[in-house]
Amino acid sequence: MLTFFGKRLLQLLPTLLFVSLIIFLLQHLLPGDPALVMAGEEKDPQVIAQIRAQYHLDQPIPIQYLYWLNGVVHGDLGESLRIKQPVLDLVLEKLPVTAQLATIAMLIALVIGIGAGVVSAVKKGSAWDYGANAFALWGISTPNFWLGIMLIFLFSVRLGWLPASGYVSLFEDWRTSLASTIMPAFVLGNAIAAILMRHTRSAMLTVLDSDYVRTARAKGLPERTVILKHAMRNALTPVITLGALEFGTLLSGAVLTEQIFSIPGFGKLIVDAVFNRDYAVVQGVVLVTATIYIVLNLLADIAYVLVNPRLRT
Amino acid sequence: MVDTTEQELLRLALPIESADSPRARAIRALLLRKAAVFGLLLIMLFTGLALLAPLIAPYDPTAQSWANVRKAPSLAHWFGTDEVGRDVLSRLLYGARASLVAGGISIAIALSIGAPLGMIAGYLGGFVDALLSRLTDAMLAIPFLILAIALAAFLGPSLGNAMIAIGVSTAPIFVRLTRAQVMTVKVEDYVEGARAVGNPRWRIAVVHILPNIVPALLVQATLSIAAAIIAEASLSFLGLGQQPPAPSWGSMLNSAQRFLASAPWLAIWPGIAIFLTVLSFNLVGDGLRDALDPRRR
């Protein structure tokens, strides 16, 4: 067991190193002089030379990478050119906002996705099954930014039930917070619900066809007990761990959702940084996102092994 | 929609000889799936509309008319007009070009990077495989759209750069898929046989392995085109794709957001267009996967 964790942790290091290399090279291998980009409108050769010296841009690229990596390891992701604040501070300020949105979105996705998947498998071939499959196809094919716009049109513009934009922390005022988060969270959770529904359906169909479920039925157990106690418990293990892997989809979706609903989170930070050519922030956000994704992947693997006794040896 | 009688006719219409070949069997299996046929018809419809846009669009998609600002759908403008009086239907028809071209080209870029690298990793194994696999893991760890946005931002906003950004961000999926497929196929007896008679490595890879992994790549490519169309619309929505005044569905949705209360049609039509196009590729992708997998037939 410990060997497994040790091996998985060791595998993390090269992946993280490659991620850092990709993010560093993003700026340095693409056309244009980073010093000129950082200087912005300022074309004074002295300022440009100062930037080159400050960011070690006058050094060979491998040395520049080592300087940058050393900073990253010590928690220095650089400084935002626009806001003049350390990138790490900005990231830590915005992270709770996106974390709240992502958590509620994941809860919505789990409830809808697993619910629809179980019903679809139990009532295979029925109108419920077709309805759930149609929902999954709709969820995968709908651009979430369009869904967001349509929900704003219906619930904010027409009905006036929910605020069209803004963010309130759950810890400040949970009612207002939920009112402002429910639409963006549904938009974000929708596509993941569709993916989880397909996986739940497939896992449930396999489990419902297995010998132990047949035995449980043969013993005369009520169908409800067979499905909730015997089938779901085994079918949902891989589905829940899959939820962690869908975190990347959540973060990708958050970029547009936060933009549409004017939520001051991680996604809005990267988009604002892109338009202000604030490359240190772009690099910082991408690096932190990838690290969170890798760590969640590891946790999903560990959870999968912990709940599956056959994999523990 | 194909009913049972039509399915029978379809079966009879296929020549007996060709029905024995794996390709004919797969095409027949695909055409027997109503959803996939519906998806194919939709793709053909959108491709036709995009190609014929200059002939069938009622107005110039960039022509502004201050007398026609935000007019609701009418006989003169079936889908209404936008905030500067441009005809929405004409912009939708021309916008289909940007979406379909971006979907196709970005996946062609992803395939041309991903498939050769995946073949090299899967076939050679060892250090090269370990290196390419770690690089793929690292790229897959960065959420797809965030990587595409970062790349598009560094390259500069344009439709061409958006296609490169989407293509490069999608490539790791093809590296991983091709590698896995090659590792399965390379231990087959016929590959061993080809090796035993002295075929060079490149010939075994191209002539004996590649044709056998094409079906899996085809399924993934179709599903990836759907994702690429959404990605292009997303980048254009953010202003990193097609640049104004050229029409694209994503940028049309961006400007529509400001006029939701007074002109909701501006947001409805481009969204439906993206949804139907993406749906059609998903339907064909799902159908192809089922048709090419003997266990699912």
Short recap of the structure:
The complex is a heterodimer of chains A (313) and B (297). Chain A is mostly helical. Chain A has helices spanning 2-28, 34-39, 45-54, 61-73, 87-122, 127-141, 144-158, 174-208, 211-218, 223-245, 247-260, 266-275, 279-307.
Broad structural category of chain A: mainly alpha
User: Which residues of chain A sit in consecutive blocks of at least 5 with pLDDT less than 50?
Assistant: none
CATH topology of chain B: MetI-like fold
User: Into which percentage range does the β-strand content of chain A fall?
Assistant: under 5%
Query: Tell me, what's the shape of chain A?
Result: globular
Helix content of chain B: over 70%
CATH superfamily of chain B: MetI-like
Radius of gyration of chain B: 22 Å
Question: CA-to-CA gap between the ends of chain A?
Answer: 7 Å
Overall mean confidence score, pLDDT of chain B:
88
CATH class category label of chain B: Mainly Alpha
The number of distinct helices of chain A, counting runs of at least 4 residues, comes to: 13
**Straight-line N-to-C gap of chain B:** 19 Å
Major sheet summary line of chain A: none
Mean pLDDT of chain A: 86
Largest interface: A-B, 50 and 43 residues
Largest sheet of chain B: none
CATH hierarchy: architecture of chain B: Orthogonal Bundle
